[in-house]
Here is the input.
Amino acid sequence: MKLKNKVIDVLKNCFDPEIPIDLWNLGLIYDIKITKAKNNKKNITVIMSLTTPGCTMGNSMAEDIKTQISELEEVNDTKVEVTFDPPWKPEMMTGYAREKLGF
Here is the structure.
């Protein structure tokens, strides 16, 4: 399995504590950057957003992502960057998330 797919699988196991849907299906993950590290492993940078700029759980979610991705054998280092450009909208959710939340 490709590393990006493994990272996506991990993100599907990271949840917003206030919404019972994973961060991937909520549409909060904007980008996954994979770069080479010196030790034949990879560095991962996840660009994500939050449902609102005032979300107090942002640091908790970022740490959860970092911890879980870092456990992958191929990963050297993991960084999580939070952006609000573009601002998150419910339309960014997958069909699965919309259905679960009644949209």
About this structure: Strands lie at 29-36, 42-48, 75-82. The helical segments are 3-11, 23-26, 58-70, 95-101.
